Amino acid sequence: MCLAVPGRILSIEGDDPVLRAGRVDFAGIVKRVNLSYVPEASVGDYVLVHVGFAISTVDEAEARQVFAYLKEMGDLAEIEEVPS
Amino acid sequence: MRFMDEYRDGAAAEQYAIALARITTRPWTLMEVCGGQTHAIVKFGVDALLPPEVTLVHGPGCPVCVTPLELIEKAIEIAARPDVIFCSFGDMLRVPGTATDLLSVKARGGDVRIVYSPLDAVDLARANPSKQVVFFAVGFETTAPANAMAVFQAARAGIENFSVLMSHVLVPPAMEAILSSSECRVQGFLAAGHVCAVMGYTEYEPIVEKYKVPVVVTGFEPLDILQGVYMCVRQLEEGRADVENQYTRAVRREGNTPARDLVSRVFQVVPRKWRGVGEIPQSGLGLAEAYREFDAEERFGVADQTTDEPAECESGRIMQGLIKPPDCAAFGTRCTPEHPLGATMVSSEGACAAYYRYRRLGFVDAMAGAGSGASTGVGVGARVGARAEVPVGG
Ligand code: SF4
Questions:
Q1: Is residue A13 a part of any domain in this protein?
Q2: Residue B59: closest CA among B250, B361, B276
């Protein structure tokens, strides 16, 4: 129910902030999505969409942190395992 | 799909599993709050990758599951009226009321429609001025901005034949209710990432302070959940209790400000009954005074009706993390997705339905494929997520 799916904004229309909407591409499936809650998002950005509304922009720089964290842990473990 | 598939990588999952096993020295019980996380955990077998000391219990985070019987009864009564088009997210249609459900109302000729977005219901109202269009506004904080916008737009456009049956619930009061129970087993929480995408996570700071339990804002893909578990266990092992954010690609500390603003304008905090749990103070959203004319309960005169819950279903105890679905005597026998006794067996995110779908035969799916068992004793397929769906709905 709280599922939100990432999609890429293809186009944006509407001058009225409340009616701001756009076409969003979900790996080939294109849907019309209300964009009034992501005023900062522009064409090409990824947004998380829930029941027809973008609720957040996906931060591309942060998207790698799951993997960076993993690498950091690996490095730490190696340091710890080195006998002193 | 970008931003989904890469978080289902089996090799990275295995590394998380190994790292987790390395830091875990004692038994810990964590609760994932959101039903979407429960679904992913059971579907991908994330729990099978955890060290034996770490137990995940499933939280109350499925709005379909916690909608009280009373509101289902009201929905059924309103939907059966000849002048009404009743709109709902699909999951609500099979939730059992006392004697029937919304799907049966539809089969008997009621105009019950599944909508993808609450704005679809507003469009239906615009297109059918001679009908009363009612939207069953269920959901957590994630869905509140969408439902608030539907009411706001209807009000602005002067659409008088639109109303909402409000069944909105809030996560932090439910977490507090769980923590303050004398039976509470939960030592740390994975908070629901999409709730936090809207609300941010400042609300958890006083909870962490008061109950000394770590809260880690966590996403929905297997690697997100594994990292969330790791961060939570690390806090516990180090004797810390902080709010941390695993889901940084989608969640900012303050949440989504425009969304929160509209929610607090259209809705107000009210006490709410939770199915199987009972009333929790300040745990729901109702319409704010200025939008009361859109309240379906008042429009159709059902506001004062009450209904008691049946005793057999144990979903309330499951959602408080006290038992797991197979512990319920009715599980898989008197209660199945075809003939559900409780809402947790209906919703695809309900804990009982997830266990029925993926665990009934006792096997652990997808993630725990064949392969070399690491220190977890479970092999991980090269790429998990064999059944990647393209869900674009709620
Ligand atoms: S198995 Fe059915 S009866 Fe038992 S707790 Fe789950 S929904 Fe309720």
A1: yes
A2: B276
- Whether ligand 1 lies within 6 angstroms of the CB of B347 is answered as no
Within a domain: A80 = no
CATH number at residue A44: 2.30.30.140
Q: What pLDDT shows up at residue B376?
A: 35
Give the integer Cα–Cα distance in Å for A34 and A24: 10
The amino acid that residue B34 corresponds to is C
Is residue A81 helix, strand or coil?
Answer: helix
Find all residues with CB under 8 Å of B228, minimum gap 6, and list them: B32, B190, B216, B217, B218, B219, B246, B247
Is A81 a domain residue? no
Helix axes B144-156, B257-266, angle to 10 degrees: 60
| For chain B, counts of helices (H) and of strands (E) | 15, 11
Write down the pLDDT at residue B375.
34
Phi-psi region of B255 (alpha: psi -120 to 50; beta: other; left: phi over 0): left
Alpha helices in B204-295 (DSSP H): 204-211, 222-237, 257-266
B388/chain A closest Cα distance in angstroms = 12
Ligand 1 touching residue B342 (CB < 6 A): yes
Q: Looking at ligand 1, which residue's alpha carbon is closest to its atom 3?
A: B313
CB pairs under 8 A between A and B: 150
User: Comparing B120 with B316, which gets the higher pLDDT?
Assistant: B120
For B104-118, what is the mean pLDDT?
Answer: 95
- Tally of domains in chain A: 1
A47 pairs with which residues across the strands? A7, A57
In whole angstroms, give the CA distance from residue B209 to residue B247: 21
Residue B387 has pLDDT above 90, yes or no: no
Residue of B277, B320, B345 best suited for mutating to test ligand 1, as the one with most atoms within 8 Å of CB: B345
> Would you state the pLDDT for residue B278?
81
From CA B344, how far away is CA B325, in angstroms rounded? Answer: 9
Q: Which of B85, B60, B63 is nearest to B166 (CA)?
A: B63
B140/A contact by beta carbon, under 8 A: yes
- Residue A33 lies in domain: 5-73
Extended strands (E) in B152-240: 162-169, 188-192, 215-218
What is the model's pTM?
Answer: 0.85
Q: Judge whether B89 is closer than 8 Å to chain A, CB to CB.
A: yes
Residue A79 included in any domain: no
